[in-house]
Amino acid sequence: MVDTTYIFLQHYWWFIISLLGALLVFLLFVQGGQTLIYTLGKTELERTMLINALGRKWEFTFTTLVTFGGAFFASFPLFYSTSFGGAYWVWMAILFCFIVQAISYEFRSKPNNFLGQRTYEVFLYINGLLGTILFGTAVATFFTGSMFSVDKMNLTDVNNPVISSWETPWHGLEAALNLHNLALGLAVFFLARTLAILYFMNHVNHNAIFERAKKHLLYNALPFVVLFLVFVIWLMLRDGFAVNPSDGTVFMEKYKYLHNLIQMPVILIVFLVGVLLVLWGIAKSLISNYTKGIWFTGVGTVLAVLALFLIAGWNNTAYYPSTFNLQHSLTIFNSSSSKFTLTVMSFVSLLIPFVVAYIWYAWKSINVKQIDEYEMSSESHVY
Amino acid sequence: MEHFDLSLVNWSRAQFALTAMYHWVFVPLTLGLAFIIAFMETLYVKTGDEEWKRITKFWMTLFGINFAIGVATGIILEFEFGTNWSNYSWFVGDIFGAPLAIEGIMAFFMESTFIAVMFFGWNKVSKKFHLVSTWLVAVGANLSALWILVANGWMQYPAGMYFNPDTARNEMHNFWEVLFSPVAINKFLHTITSGYVLAAIFVIGVSAWYMLKGRNILLAKRSIIVAAVFGLVTSIFLALTGDGSAYQVAQKQPMKLAAMEGLYEGQEGAPLIVVGALTPGKQFDDDMDPYIFRIQIPKMLSFLGYRSGDAFVPGVKDLVEGGYTYVDKNGVEKVALSAEQKIERGKIAIKALADYTAAKDANDTVAVAYNRALLNDNFEYFGYGYLNNPKSIIPNVPLTFYSFHIMVALGFLFIGFFMLILYLVYFRQFKINKWILRLSILMIPLAYIASQTGWIVAEVGRQPWVIQDILPTVAAVSRIDSSAVQITFFLFFTIFTALLIAELRIMFKQIKIGSKEGDK
């Protein structure tokens, strides 16, 4: 018997995961900005201003990543066990990128900091460069698949009870050799830099930084748009991993992701609006001295990425496909938590609007004025 | 257990232990210092005294240095559940994942949002909003601890769940039983109060250094007052929750209790070892005296563990060989099975799961019903089915024993220390002997030792289980090469150690610099 409530909850939690993923991609502007500190800041003071502009936001990105992981664990634990335990090297590399970020802001300018200011800046750069590319590459495997197998009945083999196995010795590194994955990885990297530039133009009150940012906006937005188009067009044209709703079998369907957009027109609209907002924010900032581009491009990023996540998991699609054995692919149906757990967490998720509201309020309170040279000398807590 | 890749299991354990122990170097100070700072800022807002503001900001600087590294190690722990313990993630993810997700939504965002206001909002928001933000950081940090400790408590005593053979995993059926499990509640209260005590000692120790140096005296005196009161209250509470935790261990994890006390032969009216040393090489089935020497309190272990001085406390040997009588959670008196019998029944449960699935695939309804019943009857021993040797249910007794006794001794020392400091503050008007000031500084590393040994008792003492009786650690690991885990272990070790050195150097420097303005 079809349990419609359970199916709804599985879709709802894929939406929450998608939303968290989309917010995370937007918040990666912090990472993007970290790769631009020496490009946009030519003096120590300018670099300090840029780092402080980012330093007040890094926690949001970090917390969103942690919550994204926690929510994935709670709602789709089979993904957590299969991907994290299998694509070991990719996730470990991402984690290393994030450890070194967390302390770099706080330690960078403190006296007697052991590794030296420059080392912490290199840490920030590594986090910005590899963190974004690896994250984008890992997410692209939602569409291109990975070499893994899952057999829950392995639990009954007392000598070897592991249910998920990675079927290549590369343990995730092979994802970086797939050009389609890499296109998204690099697109996320350039998007993060583009968003960071727009954020600096909005939040840092400094003419030289503004002018340099505007100049570099084109250098970063252009490769982003090209790579994004390559990824999306390729995605629309490729075969996708479809699920037969009657028996759960997975099969290859031509133009699956294009079909998903067409068959879910609301998501198509969300995607198109998102792309337009992204382009509008960039274009307006390029042709004038507009400082609010971050809001358009930021909201657009959230909408476009949300739509991409949704077409990976909704409309009977396997969101984590196995290229080793199609029938081992993960879908929102075969990998989710129980109905009871999803129900409990859905009640908790009602807190999300409240959380968003207080984040917004606190963010506004702190951003009440732009960062300027005066603040760097008068503020007691400076990175 | 030779059928498992023990090298992989051991390196995975080492990596998780390394991450958890480093994480727990930084987190307790965050938990306690957040409240101490909130108290100080409250005094500033109430009195308008600028010196309180300077004191608050000084401790806030140290808080910030410590906080970031706690966050960095925390994210690794979260993801290591997946990267290194993938079988665990599926087998109990339905229950364990929920607290982690709730932690993220409810606690982490609160902490990270208001920490930005706390650090950068002094000149941007009102005094009251700033104060509320500081309190919310403290609440958020402690809420984070609640959810992860609920999850950990559940691993020690799995409640509110059942095994679903159709999905081959454990599933939650009662959220409140998970949240309000007595083990989880005690674990939460005991753990966070240990953080409060550590933070109080840290503040007193640093302040004592200023007094020894004859500088920042007002900051030091005021900080000592706040920290000593906070420390005394919380250290007494720590002892009470410690008693509660030990009581729960006696009921739910008797092997851990036996290891904590080095109790090999069970007895009625069992004594509590106050101080003692174990005989090296002691095995559960030999005739060697377990102790080289001991000072004990008669009947106290029975009383603390079962609230009756004459109660029988099973020892390691009893738990391996079974045969003693005990009262189960439903109040029914039973004869304990031996480990060997439990292993047999665990294997029956695992085979029943395989047969159930095969029967379901073959549409054999009779076999389905039979195997399901067989599985249900034996499920409480499911995890034993992965073990081959009865001895493997014994944890590392010396490590658990010494860790437990060091932790308890230091806990009582701290209560005495706070009393002494408060006595000197109130009855001797801060006339504190320089040796006591030096002792106060020495207390800081002792507080960290107590904190770490507490976790060693909790985690080493419950081996071989990752989920008590249901999933042994050996069956919880991911299928990766042992060499891969070795590489990441050493990478983590190097980076965590470098960051610890950096943190200590920065912290010492900031303490030397002291409060930027105000009294010198």
**Beta strands of chain B, count:** 10
- Kindly estimate the percentage of residues of chain B that lie in beta strands according to DSSP: 5-15%
The helix-and-strand class of chain A reads: mainly alpha
- What's the total helix number of chain B? 15
Largest sheet of chain B: 2 strands, antiparallel
Based on secondary structure, the structural category of chain B is mainly alpha
The value of Rg of chain B in angstroms is: 25 Å
Count of spatially separate domains of chain A:
1
N-to-C series of helices and strands of chain B: HHHHEEHHHHEEEHEHEEHHHHEEH
Question: Rough shape of chain B?
Answer: globular
First and last CA, distance of chain A? 58 Å
- Which strands sit side by side, in order, in the main sheet of chain B? 1-2
Biggest interface, residues from each chain = A-B, 83 and 99 residues
Mean pLDDT of chain B: 93
Walk across the major sheet of chain A and give the strand order: 1-2
Main sheet characteristics of chain A? 2 strands, antiparallel
Percent of residues in beta strands of chain A: under 5%
Helix content of chain A: 55-70%
Distance between the termini of chain B: 63 Å
Number of H- or I-type helical stretches of chain A: 16
Describe the structure concisely.
The complex is a heterodimer of chains A (383) and B (520). With 383 residues, chain A is mainly alpha-helical. Chain A is built from 16 helices and four strands.
Keywords:
heterodimer; A: about 375 residues; two-stranded antiparallel sheet; 16 helices; 4 strands; B: mainly alpha; two-stranded antiparallel ribbon; 15 helices
